Amino acid sequence: AQMLFRATGGQVGIELSVMKPWHDLVAECWQVAVRRRMQEAGAQKSDEKDCNGL
């Protein structure tokens, strides 16, 4: 939104009531991705422990 504002020389308005739901959605998607990476990393560590025990 800020890039669009700057690119148009300030001639574009930014309606926060429109941006907030998108911002919330992006933040939620980011959190889901972080949790998934953490779970996958934990699963890999668990697999490594199983292989080392052989």
UniProtKB/TrEMBL annotation:
Top-rank taxon, per record: Bacteria
Matches recorded under Pfam families: DUF2605
Protein name, per record: Uncharacterized protein
